Amino acid sequence: MRITFAAPALPKSGAYAGLVTEGGTLASALDELNGQLDGALTRAIKASRFDGKKGEILEVVAPAGVGVSRVLLLGVGKPEEAKPLDFERIGGDMTARLNGTGEKEAAVVVDALADLGLEPAEAAARVAFGAQLRSYRFDKYKTKQKPEQKPSLGKLTVMAAAQAGAKRHYGKLAGIAEGVFTTRDLVSEPANVLYPESFAKQARKILEKVGVECEVLGEKEMEKLGMGALLGVGHGSERESQLLIMRWMGAGKAAAKGKSKGKGKTKPAEAAPLAIVGKGVCFDTGGISLKPPAGMEDMKWDMGGAGVTVGLMHALAARKAKVDVIGVCGLVENMPDGKAQRPGDIVHSMSGQTIEVINTDAEGRLVLCDALWYVQETFKPKAIVDLATLTGAIMVALGKTQAGLFSNDDELSERILAAGKAVGEPCWRLPLGEDYDRLIDSDAADMKNVGGRWGGSITAAQFLQRFIQDGTAWAHIDIAGVTWSDKDRPTVPKGATAFGVRLLDELVAKHYEK
Ligand code: BES
Ligand code: MN
Ligand code: ZN
Fold this sequence. Notes:
alpha/beta; 2 domains; eight-stranded mixed beta sheet; about 20% strand
């Protein structure tokens, strides 16, 4: 959707929307229009249950005499309590509503309400951001949609007295929205289209355009590195496994000016503060420990962690974040086949530790352990966050709105929890500990890849922690429950959510950016 900013003015056509506070007070622009219409808006409010509460919307078909076709009254509740996310929600809900009306253009006035809880410029930018996020559609494979089935809204003007400030503020948010859309696109693609090689190629195409350096390792190179755990997962697949390495050197660019040039491209970034590692299982059949058929199609989004990693890199580059971030995605397809690995097989990980594969469906941790080791050996990051649709058990524990967080570092953990809260991507921390760690000891190898029936998400995290080197702050976010939404939410349409992109962007902005 195209979004522009302008000074408040009554448009000549299209839909017109504005804010109403709890109790039914019209913001100034609407009040003016109400006057022109002899109080038609106040009458409409009286005749309805609309009260200006947070989340309420009243649609009024415009009476004759004004150019606009309809007026949307958007409840903000108590303005002094309104938070950035509330304005995003207003923008999102408004967009969803207008998309169902056939309206092609709309203007929304975000007046400088008295006692507004945040800067008017930010409020306007947040409305724009929410509208943009909700406007996302993945309908490229729907060839028979009738016009009335398609979302209609193509252009939104956000009107605010502080239009210049709003536009500036939205500039950053628009970069984040681009990253979110990249993730949603990748996660939505079916596995016949998006497999390890095409994922890497697609990511590269998107990222190199915005200045992210990409490198892709194939199976031969990974064999040389000794990544037997990751490679074992891909054995049963016709598709070649890949390791995608991305570098956004935003801080380096600013700092490198005085320094001598000509250093090798492949040289690890000095003191890369942060590394993001994503699980990229492009399809998870379970392998020889085959999953039951019902719902298996969902496993096309088992590369959600990798999708978020790519989307984050895109967002950071799009908003030119002053930070160095490394992204690594382990990309594989988990298939049953004559060549597939078997339960009982023992594989050698890059770290040198051996793993007994008890269940080939616990493949995410096998992919991640080599990707985690690789990123530490190559880049020596101070902190690592990994994201993975790792366990069904996390959905049993936390449902579909909060992600599971595991960490060896209280500060990193607190930062992630706060960032998640701020952007509406909440996480809940779960424990790690000796007792859980013992559950993955193996009789035949250094460890096994499953820990039994209880605490499945924790033993999975415990497995990952065995691949974290001393002194590295690490957090693991299990996003199995939050990667796909089966219903529309204010700023997240049904489908791929991109949960994690906004959270990590916020984490970077708050704690890692110069
Ligand atoms: N990709 C799945 C986890 C998953 C399940 C993600 C449902 C999203 C929705 C993962 O690879 C898996 O199969 N985990 C197993 C682990 C078990 C075998 C220890 C699980 O959760 O059942
Ligand atoms: Mn699995
Ligand atoms: Zn999986």
